[in-house]
Amino acid sequence: MKKFIKMVFFELKDSFRARWFYIYFLIFFGMMVGFLWSGVTASEVLGFTGLTRVLVAYIEITVIILPLFILISASRSVVAEKEFFILEYILSFPVSIGQYYWGKFVGKFITILIPVYLAFLASVLWGGVVKHFVIPWNIYFIYATLLISLSISFLGLAFLISSLSQKQDTAIFMGFFVWLFFVLFIDVGILGLFLKFGIDINIVLAMALANPLDLFRIAAFSLFDPKLAAIGPIAWTLLGKLGNNGLLALAFIYPSLVGIIMGIVGYVYFKHGDYI
Predict the structure, then answer these.
(1) Are 226 and 244 in contact (CB under 8 A)?
(2) Three-state DSSP class for 45?
(3) Shortest CA distance to 185 belongs to which of 159, 203, 167?
(4) Which ranges constitute the DSSP H helices of the chain?
(5) How does residue 156 score in pLDDT terms, banded at 50, 70 and 90?
């Protein structure tokens, strides 16, 4: 356990030295500061106003940027160290393959969530202390939990890509392609296929549920708009079939499970492959 914890801290230190982390940090804080400074809390769009309006905008951008940063940064984690012979040096110490792999996984997971949660917390404190908005803490807690689930799902995919790849360029390209695929098949794209080819509605709903991005987006919006009137018929249909609690439970369990399974598959391949 001590060696595993050391690997987690090693990954954290390595990430804090990387330029991408500070770019990532500035993007999320810059978005939140921009929303608050621009006076978007005073506007009303689709019935959302105040701090809720900021968070709705934050959700829309997070759903695009967070998975991209996870896939681009984490998909090169293992393959970069293998390509530059750092992995061979690390494994010369009394560290097992499992401690190395899962230590990097947990360390990267913490690194990814730090900027997102700090920006999220800053918006809550600003809304409560400066603007004196009423803060629905139960909603914020659920949203924070959904962020964890979304991060695990794409982190598992990224580590699988990193384990399968032989070069960093390949891993980054595959990560970008996976991100693009999921972005294209959010509910707008799925609805377009439905209208174009007349796909059965149950298949359409299954496609929406299978996409962690779309599932996160629908569940997150359901916290602020229980009727999901603002984001389309697919979301509204899913809410009618699953109910609000069922939708939220699925949005946490399914992406987390996908991420863990993908991470385990990546570990098995990495352990039995040519990792030196």
Answers:
(1) yes
(2) strand
(3) 203
(4) 2-17, 19-37, 50-74, 77-83, 86-90, 97-125, 137-164, 168-184, 187-197, 201-210, 212-224, 233-272
(5) very high
Rounded to the nearest angstrom, the gap between the alpha carbon of residue 87 and the centroid of all alpha carbons in its chain is: 26
Q: What does each C-alpha distance from 72 to 106, 154, 179 come to in angstroms?
A: 17, 10, 9
**Residue that is written with structure tokens 């401690």 in the block:** 99
Judge contact between 8 and 110, C-beta under 8 A.
yes
CA–CA distance, 77 with 74 (Å, rounded to integer): 5
- This prediction has a pTM of 0.84
Q: If 0-12 CB within 10 Å is exposed, 13-18 middle and 19+ buried, where does residue 82 land?
A: buried
Cβ–Cβ under 8 Å, residues 26 and 117: no
Distance, in Å, from the CA atom of 99 to the CA atom of 101, rounded to the nearest integer, reads 6
Cα–Cα separations (whole angstroms), residue 3 to 10, 97, 98, 103, 160: 10, 11, 10, 9, 23
Closest-CA residue to 115 (of 20, 51, 253, 219): 20
CA-CA distance, 28 to 186, in Å (whole number)?
22
Q: Which residue matches tokens 């032989």?
A: 166
> What per-residue string of b and e applies to 45-64 under the rule 16 or more CB within 10 Å gives b?
eeebebbbbbbbbbbeebbe
How high is the pLDDT of residue 106? Answer: 92
- Tokens encoding 40: 């978007």
Tokens 């918006």 correspond to what residue?
Answer: 123
Coil, strand or helix: which one is 55? helix
- Which among 80, 47, 98 is positioned nearest to 170, based on CA atoms? 80
Whether 155 has a pLDDT exceeding 90, the answer reads yes
